[in-house]
Amino acid sequence: MTDFGAIGDLVILWFAAFLPALVYLFWIRQTERYSKEAWGPLLASFAYGAIVATIVAAIVETILVSAGTQLSQTVPGPEFIFLNGNSSLGVLFLVLVIAPFVEEGLKASGVVRNGDKLRTIADGPVFGASTGLGFGFFETFLYGLSLFLVSGLAAAVGLVIVRSLSSVLLHGSSTGMFGYGYARSKLGVPGAGAGAYYLVAVGMHASFNFLASGDVVARLLGYPQYATYASIVGLLTAIFFAFAAIEHVRTLIRYTEYPALGTGTRPYQAPPSPRRPPSRPGYR
Question: What is d(CA 69, CA 270) in angstroms, rounded to the nearest whole number?
Fold first, then answer.
């Protein structure tokens, strides 16, 4: 505990997790040049990802891991050892399969909630990123809180900073990709849509987790002496992956907002609703 006391330390930890995610959300929102999304719906989407998606995902994953561990310990033989959450293989199965499918599904529900607000394809990845960044913020805060209770504020803030440079961006970019696909489906654009881009999001999430699990992989391969090096290399690679992914999402936003840059071509828009005037009346 520092001189600020326990409450002060928690406030510091909270802001250490919250501010980077908010800066990323501002960065994503600024990618849209024309008629940026209102802050109200974006922050509501952010809050949904932080509170609803994170908590429900934690509950679902706990149930699945507990059930898998029980099954692996009940059934004789090695067939279900990968479900044992107490083993290295079980941990790898959790981060490569269970977590990506569960978390991307729950974050995707935050995008679907905003389906009526999608007027261009670019709106999809913006809302997707806002939901994913909210999820990443609160998950990071919870990880930091766990470490804070054991090792103090400095270690917790260090963990929060590392996750803010990696997993928070990953959550924003993977759900941003789903948002892109969902907007395509919602606006009737031919080709790959919500289902395909949900799998893209799951694949991105699993790939990032694999990179960040270098120490676990090293031990499973029988090279525990290289676990520390594998962990460092994996983390640096995961950070690069996360930044490349979020930049790709920003590129999609720019492209789908004005696909023929410099030619005056308008982005794809949904037809106006007969029950209300077209949104963004000042659009040119």
Answer: 48
- What is the full DSSP assignment across 184-230? HHHTT-SSS-HHHHHHHHHHHHHHHHHHHTHHHHHHHTT-GGGHHHH
| Residue 221 vs residues 89, 93, 226, 260: alpha-carbon distances, Å | 11, 15, 10, 49
Pick from 32, 13, 50, 267: which is nearest to 172 by CA?
50
Cα angle 219, 220, 223 (rounded to 5 degrees) comes to: 40
Residues 178-228: pLDDT tens digits?
999 999 998 888 888 899 999 999 999 999 999 998 888 888 778 888 888
Q: How far apart are CA 15 and CA 247, in angstroms?
A: 24
DSSP 39-108: HHHHHHHHHIIIIIIHHHHHHHHHHHHHHHHHHHHHS-SSTTGGG-TTSHHHHHHIIIIIHHHHHHHHHH
Q: Please answer whether residues 102 and 55 qualify as being in contact, where contact means their C-beta atoms are separated by less than 8 angstroms.
A: no
Of 50, 207, 205, 201, the residue nearest 139 (C-alpha): 50
For 46-59, write each residue's pLDDT tens digit. 999 999 999 999 99
What's at 112, amino acid-wise?
V
Q: Give the residue from 44, 170, 59 showing the smallest Cα distance to 111.
A: 44
CA distance 75 to 105: 30
